[in-house]
Amino acid sequence: MPVTVRSFAKINLGLAIGPPRPDGYHELRTVYQTVALHDVLRLEVARGSGITIRSKDPRVPTDRTNTCYRILELGRDLLKVKGNVVLEIEKHLPVQGGLGGASGNAVAALLALERAAKKQLPGPERLRIAAAVGSDLPLFLVGGTSLGVSHGEEVYPLADLPAVTCVIATPEIGVSTPKAFADWDARMAAAEGGKAEKLTGSAASDRIEEFGRRLSVWLNGVPTKKAERPSSGVPAKGRGRAETQLLDLVRTGIANDFEEVVFPQHPELRDVKRVLEQSGAMYASLSGSGSAVYGLFRSRQEAEQAARRLVKTGIPAQATTTLTRAAYWKQVLG
């Protein structure tokens, strides 16, 4: 009998790009936040052998290039699953849109395989194989609000922000992540006097350190379950708990570094961000390297109005909500 799971999206609350590393990756700092938009996956173990991936969306690869295929290969061996693992992907999230769709699909596929096998991998083993398949995968084994470091694959749970209404706009624009990184390196080289070998110097490293300082300021004001610590700068009076914490984070000055190189290449994405801000978003940003752009709103009504405004201009957009860690895990397998 098929196992059905949901595969949720993520957004980045700020993203700082550090210098390139010897392994070819860039050092990163970001705050991941899961949101309610999702794909639906159905998995069953049938007679035969191998792995079969199906999708009605022609943009979804059904061969070994699909991250689901790679993680299912590893999971099948570790769980000692016999038979043909058949995975059907019902796609609603954009492909390569900066929302972690493919990575979320892979983690959801692994969780579905565990349920089908009636076995569960140890947490560290799950994280190990997830990181081996892709940098964004481990965040979907945490959910909620989490800190991403290293090249994004090292994830630490943070105190959850209460659910906030948001709008996710998904312009049909292809943004190349490798090109965005290359453009960033060129920008940093220029800042360092035009010498690429200086990319490990101050300009790139300082951004990572500054992001860490801003995040530390915010974390010092995030309430815990045991006690309400004082805010680090946003008055609580007259504001809801979710809005207070979110505005506190936004006012630290976090931003997505990719905007500095992606927006000049795709000014229409800057226009989407501007529409969200003009529509009342408390914070708007590119997610990852794009092309998805999101805005966080005080009310569902404001969010729906903003989404309708974008749709009228031909930009696909939806009002949704962020997901706390508990809500994420309840709904993934619910």
Shape: globular
Judged by helices, strands and strand pairing, the structural class is alpha+beta
User: How do the helices and strands follow one another from N- to C-terminus?
Assistant: EEEHEHHEEEHHHHHEEHEH
Number of DSSP strands? 10
Helical residues, percent: 25-40%
Task: Just give the CATH class of the largest domain.
Answer: Alpha Beta
Average pLDDT, rounded to a whole number, is 88
The major pleated sheet works out as: 6 strands, mixed
Strand content: 15-25%
What is the count of structural domains?
2
Based on CA atoms alone, the radius of gyration comes out at: 20 Å
Helical stretch tally: 10
CATH topology of the largest domain: Ribosomal Protein S5, domain 2
Account of the protein in words:
- This protein has 334 residues and is of the alpha+beta class.
- It folds into 2 domains: 3-160 and 327-332, Ribosomal Protein S5, domain 2, CATH 3.30.230; 165-324, Alpha-Beta Plaits (2-Layer Sandwich).
- Helix content is 37%, strand content 24%.
- The protein contains 10 helices and 10 strands.
- The strands form 2 sheets. Strands 1, 2, 3, 4, 5 and 6 form a 6-stranded mixed sheet that branches. It has a 4-stranded antiparallel sheet with strand order 8-9-7-10.
- Strand 3 (50-55), helix 1 (67-79) and strand 4 form a beta-alpha-beta unit.
- Helix 1 (67-79) runs parallel beside helix 2.
- The longest helix has 18 residues, at 202-219.
- The chain is globular and about 55 Å long.
- The protein starts with a strand and ends with a helix.
- Residues 196-200 and 224-238 have low confidence and may be disordered.
